[in-house]
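Hi F.,

I've been meaning to write this up properly since the lab meeting, where we talked about keeping a consistent format for the predictions we share between groups. The idea is simple: the sequence comes first, exactly as it goes in, then the structure tokens exactly as they come out, then a line or two of notes. No screenshots and no reformatting. I'm using this chain as the first example so we have something concrete to point to.
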Amino acid sequence: MIPATLVITVTAFIGLKWAALQFWLISRIKIEATTDAGDDEAEDPLLSDENNETTARLKEIYTAIYEGAESFLRAEYKVCLLFCSVFTVIIFVLVGWGAGWDMVKGALTAVSFLLGALTSMASGYLGMKVAVYSNVRTTISAAKPGWRDCFNTAFRAGAVMGFSLCGLGILVLYLTMLSYKLYFPQANWLALTECLTGFGLGGSVIAMFGRVGGGIYTKAADVGADLVGKVVHGIPEDDPRNPATIADNVGDNVGDVAGMGSDLFGSFAESTCAALVIGSSIGVASGWDAMVFPVLVSGVGIIVCLFASFIATDIWPVKKEAQVEMALKVQLIATTLLMIPAVYFTARWYLPSEFEIKSTVGSDTLTLHPWQAFLCVTMGAVGGLIIGLVTEYYTSHSYSPVREVANACKTGAATNMIYGIALGYKSAIIPVLVLAMVVYGSFSLCDMYGVSLAAIGFLANLATGLTIDVYGPVCDNAGGIAEMAELDPSVREKTDALDAAGNTTAAIGKGFAIGSAALVSLALFGAFVTRIRHSSNDALFEHGVNMLEPLTFAFGIIGGMIPFAFAAMTMKSVGLAAMEMVQEVQRQFDENPQLLDDNPSERPDYDACIAISTNASLKEMVPPGAMVIFTPLLTGIFFGVNAISGLLVGALIASIQLAISMSNSGGAWDNAKKYIEKQPTDSELGGKGSDIHKAAVVGDTVGDPFKDTSGPALNIVMKLMAVLSLVFADTFYAIHGGGGVFNLK
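Output, unedited:
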């Protein structure tokens, strides 16, 4: 049997190599015209020597988007690095003190925190660079006949992000584990995994700032551009006359790409850390290869996603518009189905025929088998697929729910809002039931270790999930570039068709992210309980968490409030920034009325709008992030482990419902608007520019922060609170035996 270390490192390197290959294929598409008569690019009418002005305009737009995204991420990451520097010291001191002044443990946890944060930043930055690099090349490919080239360009851009993030994440995490293994003996591998939890915390902290900061940036620009441009002045989306259009396109890259990358990296790191902490006893009894089974599943997932990607690009390539959405959906279905046998054989080969694990509740020792672990991972993978497909049903204009929202626009924006909010609430029913069944089934099979494996299963095809997630913003930007460069309308029509499929699959990706976040946070909570039991020698939580304890129940109510407070803060932040953006755009139109001419002689001041989004997002991302980070920390220190248990349970339950409903309402409003735009002007829905369309634009504008700021960031709320509690578990227990400073009963 091949050693687990070899399998994990080789699959990680394969993922990185595959990402490099996809980037090379994208780089072959040139922005400038060539003189080689045999070069396909020289024959492209878009890039011929007769269209040098168009080529120069494409480069100008590409450069503006790149510089805007680069400057924002640099500014955001400076804030993140400053915070991480301070928080590293806090981790070192509090974890070391909580472990009985074991400063080595404090130092190793702090180091893993920094590594997780830096890897998350690297993932987000890389995703942004690749997306911006690929946007204009997707536009160029869309100017050519056929659908294969433009689809493959956007798909490969997503693949660079997906495979590089998975490969880099696995590699850094596993090398950290191997380094710590040199210090900790096999009998103390629980301490090794506890130190490793800092890695998940680091990834989640950056994800919080990336999601919130990027979400505020992109939606401030988007809302501002839509309200003044489309609603007031009736100019098309991404029209170069709109001063906010560059900021809007920059936002797609820093929010939808960099933010999503950091978010899903955090999910991967946290789910792996939770599974390792809960399953550390497997390693003590059965060896290293058995303990790192969760990492093996992620490594095998890279290979499965790699082979499945050939289906979209080579085996059944996209030849017409109707095949775009199906090609992306087939990726999710194929990778899920292929993962089932791959996980089965991985469990058979690397887990012992029998292994024991201590029950999370009670004093029993459970005897488990590889087939049980396999079923837990499979339930997670299949559950994720079901949630994704249900999300598609509620957010795609191919189905009745979104068309009902579109028809509601006939009577104005108010009925559109009512229908959209109702759709979001209704769309939470099936995903919540699926999550409940996955939790019950996996816990019944393998206790809390099974829940952590189900979370790993949700993320087993993470490379494909990220590929599809990044595909959407790339196509969206490609359409914006086509509009700003004033290319033939057929190019914009093609990119809009690609983007429409991307919107639906992005909603599917958000469903995956929310479902995985729910399981990850529950697994982290289980790891927290396991760690408190170990620290207290079963004096606490031997019979589970008693929710009827007054302190626990009281903080359960407070925990349920946290997601609503967070959503309120982030929504208001978008509103404040959007108001400033609206005023700036209108100011430019008032001072330069010629900007609204069909062929204006001047360009708007794009930089002013970029500065508004940048400054607003950097300022507004701190309060909600600080609330989520310091609420569990202060609760544990002052009120103890019972209070923190209630806080985590309440936040988890409320976050799931709110995240699903907000994300799906926003996605439905967006696609209802796109559905109306596809209709002819003499149809019942009136098409673009009609009053019905304006009502749909209002819904889409409200839905922007729902689906791209507050909704997705709620994933991180539940994960970050749970992983932070796990990292500081020993600290909380060290204060009055888990009673906190106030030692309330």
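Notes:
Residues 34 and 42 are 5 Å apart (CA to CA).
The longest helix spans residues 52-98.

If this format works for you, I'll send the rest the same way.

G.
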